[in-house]
Amino acid sequence: MVQWKTSRWNVENVDNLHEHPAIQEAAMWMKEGEVIAFPTETVYGLGANACSNEAIEKIFEAKGRPSDNPLIVHIAEIEQLEQATTTWSETAQKLMDAFWPGPLTIILPKNERIAERTTAGLSSVGVRMPDHPVALALIKACGLPIAAPSANRSGKPSPTKGEHVYKDLNGRIKGIIDAGSTGVGLESTVVEVSGDVVTILRPGGISKAQLEEIVDHVKLDEALFESGQVPRSPGMKYTHYAPDAPLFLVEGNHVFFQKVIDQYEAEGQKVGILISNERAEHVTANVIKCLGSSNQVEDVAQNLYHQLRSFDDTDVDIILAEMYPVDGIGEALMNRLMKAAGNRMIADNHNRD
Fold first, then answer.
1. pLDDT digits over 183-222, tens only?
2. Which CATH number fits domain 247-347: 3.40.50.11030, 3.40.50.1360, 3.40.50.720, 3.30.70.3550?
3. What's the CA gap between 49 and 28, in Å, rounded?
4. Do you find a cis peptide bond into 101, omega within 30 degrees of 0?
5. DSSP secondary-structure letter at 175?
6. Which residues contact 23 (CB under 8 A, 6 or more apart)?
7. Could you tell me if residue 292 is left (phi over 0), alpha (psi between -120 and 50 degrees) or otherwise beta?
């Protein structure tokens, strides 16, 4: 592919974003069909004109992303919905009122303006309004709906810092708007609305419990638990979020966790572990990466991708990761960990926590 000299604009703690030269230049390039990485409140996105097949093809090329994986379309204000869809239900409107701007993507019927490559040929499109001033300023400056998957090479951990994007995509995209670390650290929740039933296609920054505060009927899509399904949402197919070394989830108490570590080290393998602060006090390994307190799962989720990426700067042969309860954002956290591990798990069937 064409090797760009990738521009990197720093806009952290900048006032008057709408008038900032970096925003204006990036918007100009996007209107000309180029790809720009930018921050959202979840992770960094890789944005291009959602109405142009040619622009969207550059996203797939830069990421090395499978072409049957649909992209999420980002808008900056509710009036832009008409650029992406033809209609939406009363239930969908309730969700928009409650969670937009924010980490919720709603699957809607796509209109004729949205490119076929954006939706991977599907008749529906995922739309969200990000809760980040830089993202909103950029989208408004473009005046276009912007398709934006996570700004990483396909299969790698999603980027939560501008430096992550630069490491993955320098020379492959036109520019990066760097505004420091993102907030939530996990991608948006993706939902489909049918009547008054809301189905979660991908767990994310909005939990099932939060959705249930707004609508009465919320369920998890069966495809989350089955392989080989045609993806209706990003993150539903292929191994995602994986570091270079193979990762296994360990289900069991700290004594069992240490036993697993010792077994691999006895085989001559250098072991890295991805654990909470509390468990770190009870186990030892060659490389230890702490995600935060298990009592603050939001912090664990926010740190996940950064710490997964940090293992690539070590020489570990294998990574063992702690598991977490699937309550609240823990549901999305475990979804990402299972994807990163390719569903590989080591369980203590005799003495579980």
1. 999 999 999 999 999 999 999 999 999 999 999 999 999 8
2. 3.40.50.11030
3. 11
4. yes
5. E
6. 11, 17, 134, 137, 138, 141, 177
7. left
